């Protein structure tokens, strides 16, 4: 099984919002095979605590406008990391030190990468 077209569209929309708020080093992973509760993870970094919070807010606002509701939000209080669970898509925003510590890309290295639209990576 692979991530649905809806999930892939949500990844692209979330990435657009995140980059607009200053997110860096975005990676999207198709986690539908090993996980029964999500299709995709979108992982990114923010430069500071304030930036991490701003990115999380921007992603939540953009996706909520498009329809998906937040099922759970964690970690944003201190601005070092934020997890926003939209059901099929889980967005992870990290301060660089926390991203290195949790190393989600290494943990999920066997999962296929979901390509981000070329306009996003320029």
TrEMBL record:
Coarse class of the protein's main subcellular location: cytoplasm
Protein name: Ribosomal silencing factor RsfS
Protein family (similarity comment): Belongs to the Iojap/RsfS family.
Keyword Repressor listed: yes
Function statement: Functions as a ribosomal silencing factor. Interacts with ribosomal protein uL14 (rplN), blocking formation of intersubunit bridge B8. Prevents association of the 30S and 50S ribosomal subunits and the formation of functional ribosomes, thus repressing translation.
Keywords from the named record: Cytoplasm, Repressor, Translation regulation
Keyword S-adenosyl-L-methionine tagged: no
Summary of subunit composition and partner proteins: Interacts with ribosomal protein uL14 (rplN).
Organism: Paramicrobacterium chengjingii
Compartment(s): Cytoplasm
């Amino acid at each position: 099984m692979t991530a649905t077209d809806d999930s892939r569209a949500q990844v692209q929309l979330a990435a657009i919002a995140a980059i607009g708020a200053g997110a860096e080093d975005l990676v999207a992973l198709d986690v539908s095979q090993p996980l029964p509760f999500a299709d995709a993870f979108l992982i990114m970094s923010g430069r500071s605590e304030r930036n991490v919070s701003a990115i999380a807010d921007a992603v939540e606002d953009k996706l909520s406008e498009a329809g998906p509701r937040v099922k759970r939000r964690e970690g944003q209080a201190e601005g070092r990391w934020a997890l926003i669970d939209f059901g099929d898509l889980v967005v992870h925003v990290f301060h660089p030190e926390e991203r290195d510590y949790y190393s989600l890309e290494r943990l999920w290295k066997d999962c296929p990468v979901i390509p981000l639209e070329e306009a996003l990576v320029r």
